[in-house]
Amino acid sequence: MKALHYLAGLAAVIGAVSVDAPAADEGAASAMVKPDGTIVMTTQNYQRDWTMLGTFIHLGGSGAKQINVIYTQPETVTAYRESGEFPEGTVIIKELRDGVTTGEGDDMVSSLGELKGWFAMIKPPETNPPQGPLWGDGWGWAKFNADAPEATITTNYQTDCIGCHIPVQDTDFIHVEGYPLLRK
């Protein structure tokens, strides 16, 4: 039980850490959207240039089964803290990583393992937003496997994505409770 409390505390600490980074390219969202509405994974170094919003840990039998690390552009954090809304052009990248757990009892710790893939959300413009099965409820939705970042495995956001986001529809379908930087 202490290990679970440790993991929860670790997630809170990691989520509170932010690195001051230069402003992300404002064209990040448009660079990820093809003319037909298909979404491709960003080629930007989001780990270096964007702000880490927080982490979510999925617990397994003993320790972390998966650790998700979430990033967005620095200007998104500023805009959200000022208005409480995600601006057009917001890109949220969630890294999906294996959890690596070592030790036992009070000495059990979990850390980031192998990259399994990404989940990306893009806030489209209100005028002439992209159309298609990856777009709706105010966002573009796409999941990518680590070995094929050029092609989304999402076929329809309503069947592949929205289910996990329905509980947070009042916060624009984003789990803001896990992102301390978005708090005013």
UniProtKB/TrEMBL annotation:
Organism: Microbaculum marinum
Keyword Thylakoid: no
Protein name: Cytochrome P460 family protein
Domain Cytochrome P460: 48-175
Keyword Hydrolase: no
Source superkingdom: Bacteria
Pfam (any one): Cytochrome_P460
Signal peptide: 1-23
Family annotation (InterPro entries): Cytochrome_P460 (IPR032033), Cytochrome_P460_sp (IPR038142)
UniProt entry keywords in alphabetical sequence: Signal
